[in-house]
Amino acid sequence: MQTPASFRRIVVGVLCALSLAACATRATNVPPVAPTHTPAATATPTLIPTPTLAPARYTKLVLAHGFGSPDDLTLDAQGRVIFADFGNNGVNRINADGSVTVLARGFPEPEGIVPLADGALIVAVQGNNGDHIDMIERLTPPTYAATVIHTFANTTNLPGIDSLSLDPATGDLLVADSPNGVVYRLRTDGSDLRRIAGGFVRPTHALAGPNGTVYVADEYGGVVARIAPTGTVTRLATLSYPDDLAWDADGSLLVTALGDNTVVRLDPANGAKLATLAGNLFEPQGLAVDARGDVFVSEQRANIVIELRRG
């Protein structure tokens, strides 16, 4: 996120005042929003030096609305969207029929989500003000009971860990320790924490690339960077508050830019801006791409999760 915790809470409070239903306790299932999304598997793109541009036209569909500031999102093995319901302190799933299932509640401030092969979810949870602790928690189905697997100290008075991702080559979690400006590797059981690189202003997403590289959105630094396997950091692109990253099906790098409310497409080899995929969004946060190349975005201040469907 690009705003301090105090401002975010003000925004959430205003939105709650405008729509009490958005902040009320919900039943396990929420009725569908038309049109529905047919899930597809998560994208596993072939990463190429010079990507072929995806189609210029996308159709915007609203998949879910009326939740409390939806934040990071991901796709499970069935292609269903799972998102952090930040304002309601929960994690939700959008089903194939458009209904929404509340998987878990009670987190101070849920952020990044990683689905595992066994159906479990790994969630980054920002601590409450004064706690000085951010947590990585495992949610185990079918009840999605939470277990803390790792903690990070946060004495900066800044918002905590903003995202998680999975490196498919190693099976490691990539953790952007946002308040402390460091990117780590961590095993999915919470063990073996390894520093990859530091010196970022506020890294909000780390994404595995080819040949052991890691791409980083440094939100407050205003850059997208690449970390080499040696730990060398290269600045690739300057953007206005880059927040989340995702690989498109054609191998290009997609980035949500909060400063101008866009999703942009970059060449991962040199950081060149190839296109603006979507604009006029309302604080685009979470970002994911499925195997068809359809793009999923949470618009936090609009309280919606959208699909940008190709063609």
Please provide a written account of the structure.
The chain is mainly beta and 311 residues long. The chain has one domain: TolB, C-terminal domain (Neuraminidase, 6 Propeller). 5% of the residues lie in helices and 46% in strands. It contains one helix and 25 strands. The strands form six sheets. It has a five-stranded antiparallel sheet, with no helix packed on it. A four-stranded antiparallel sheet has the order 2-25-24-23, with no helix packed on it. A hairpin with a 5-residue loop joins strand 5 and strand 6 (100-105). It is globular and about 45 Å long. The two termini are 30 Å apart. The relative contact order is 0.17. Mean pLDDT is 85; it is low at 2-28 and 43-51.
Topology:
Elements: H1 5-18, E1 29-30, E2 58-65, E3 70-75, E4 81-85, E5 90-94, E6 100-105, E7 109-115, E8 121-126, E9 133-140, E10 145-153, E11 163-166, E12 173-177, E13 182-186, E14 194-197, E15 203-208, E16 214-218, E17 223-227, E18 233-238, E19 242-247, E20 253-257, E21 262-266, E22 273-278, E23 284-289, E24 295-299, E25 304-310
Antiparallel strand pairs: 1-6, 2-25, 3-4, 4-5, 5-6, 7-8, 8-9, 9-10, 11-12, 12-13, 13-14, 15-16, 16-17, 17-18, 19-20, 20-21, 21-22, 23-24, 24-25
